């Protein structure tokens, strides 16, 4: 059981650790601390489910949710889904690699696909990287191309309270004039216009 528990911890971490921006690399070498009211592991189908006040900590990485489900495909790639938590929001926070600031975010549901290196935040979504932040009904972050897509969602996309989110909002800090473009200090946010269908 101890070996199985460690494998579950590792799988949970792999599915979530590559959240938006350049995550603190040293976190991958730190032990994983997990707390939950319940945990079930299906080794045959490669599914781990943690439920009830879920807390995952590894180094600077923190995930808080009511439920965390991790699946693994035949090639070993993981997908993770964190849902619920305080006020119905799953939350994460992690120090950026080589920086003195953090990436943090929250949404009613946070999905991560390790194969595509893509994170998605659904309903009441908010992501902050350093002093830059974006807010909308849906946020997608493509780590391979370092791009964000933020939309207001469709009319069917509403928060847990039933209220529709009105508009996408972003705060993007100006770059320092003394900053050398060849060595940027932060990762800029790239916002795309909302696309219909999301």
TrEMBL record:
<dbReference type="GO" id="GO:0030288">
    <property type="term" value="C:outer membrane-bounded periplasmic space"/>
</dbReference>
<comment type="similarity">
    <text>Belongs to the LptA family.</text>
</comment>
<dbReference type="GO" id="GO:0017089">
    <property type="term" value="F:glycolipid transfer activity"/>
</dbReference>
<dbReference type="GO" id="GO:0009279">
    <property type="term" value="C:cell outer membrane"/>
</dbReference>
<keyword id="KW-0732">Signal</keyword>
<dbReference type="InterPro" id="IPR014340">
    <property type="entry name" value="LptA"/>
</dbReference>
<dbReference type="Pfam" id="PF03968">
    <property type="entry name" value="LptD_N"/>
</dbReference>
<protein>
    <recommendedName>
        <fullName>Lipopolysaccharide export system protein LptA</fullName>
    </recommendedName>
</protein>
<keyword id="KW-0813">Transport</keyword>
<feature type="region of interest" description="Disordered">
    <location>
        <begin position="172"/>
        <end position="198"/>
    </location>
</feature>
<keyword id="KW-0574">Periplasm</keyword>
<feature type="signal peptide">
    <location>
        <begin position="1"/>
        <end position="23"/>
    </location>
</feature>
<dbReference type="GO" id="GO:0001530">
    <property type="term" value="F:lipopolysaccharide binding"/>
</dbReference>
<comment type="subunit">
    <text>Component of the lipopolysaccharide transport and assembly complex.</text>
</comment>
<dbReference type="InterPro" id="IPR052037">
    <property type="entry name" value="LPS_export_LptA"/>
</dbReference>
<comment type="function">
    <text>Involved in the assembly of lipopolysaccharide (LPS). Required for the translocation of LPS from the inner membrane to the outer membrane.</text>
</comment>
<dbReference type="GO" id="GO:0043165">
    <property type="term" value="P:Gram-negative-bacterium-type cell outer membrane assembly"/>
</dbReference>
<feature type="domain" description="Organic solvent tolerance-like N-terminal">
    <location>
        <begin position="34"/>
        <end position="143"/>
    </location>
</feature>
<dbReference type="GO" id="GO:0015920">
    <property type="term" value="P:lipopolysaccharide transport"/>
</dbReference>
<dbReference type="InterPro" id="IPR005653">
    <property type="entry name" value="OstA-like_N"/>
</dbReference>
